[in-house]
């Protein structure tokens, strides 16, 4: 049996080539029409591949394997017969690492130290720090859990927030409906939720107005989760660090680029040297599942 699988980049092709003639490789990065009409499993490129998912509509396929955790953008192009899987196990650790990096950088004023070094100035100062701070973590999925695990050694007061109120093995989870009661006491708010109609513009003017002066908001979710105009409005009073923004990329000359209370990472969350080997391992496992007639991992919808 030969399985037809698309390859959007060298990372995926290198894995597929291991299967020799058992896999027919179709090089397709989704930036144009597919070179064939029938593909058993389509593998999407990473975000920086700038895919045009509308081209999926002209292809007969069964499985769609995302190279990303996020999958919202592909949903409009899927039918009832399509099986969608995301890249769980690939990006969680790297994204959690960057979340802690941005948070610590702002809490210890690393940008100030960088500027002082560049100026040849010995600059000793007190900073906010992370210990004993109340951190409201909005989102308790794979990345949220990875962030919570990495926050634990820093001796923070962690408040986890999910879609519904409940308890799990790690303690209590508050509901997003309770945010108006939770935000006023927050020193740091970390947002790592999927982009849905429910979470779009979750971080808006009303949300930010509830925060005390000098609180830090870290958006690692999706750009549309935070209202950029609202961030601009509150940037003199609050502090922001974000890996995603709306629109993305942020237009040249935008005020947030140079604002002293803002630290920007250009959607680098999953992009570490761990990405390629983890993606390779996932793709290889998925192909082996197909050959064995087994269910794919990380199925989002079928």
UniProtKB/TrEMBL annotation:
Keyword check for NAD: yes
Keyword annotations of the record: NAD, Oxidoreductase
Domain D-isomer specific 2-hydroxyacid dehydrogenase NAD-binding stretches: 101-269
InterPro entries registered for this protein in UniProt: D-isomer_DH_CS, D-isomer_DH_NAD-bd, NAD(P)-bd_dom_sf
Pfam families: 2-Hacid_dh_C
rRNA-binding recorded as keyword: no
Species in which this protein is naturally found: Arcanobacterium pinnipediorum
Protein name per Swiss-Prot or TrEMBL: NAD(P)-binding domain-containing protein
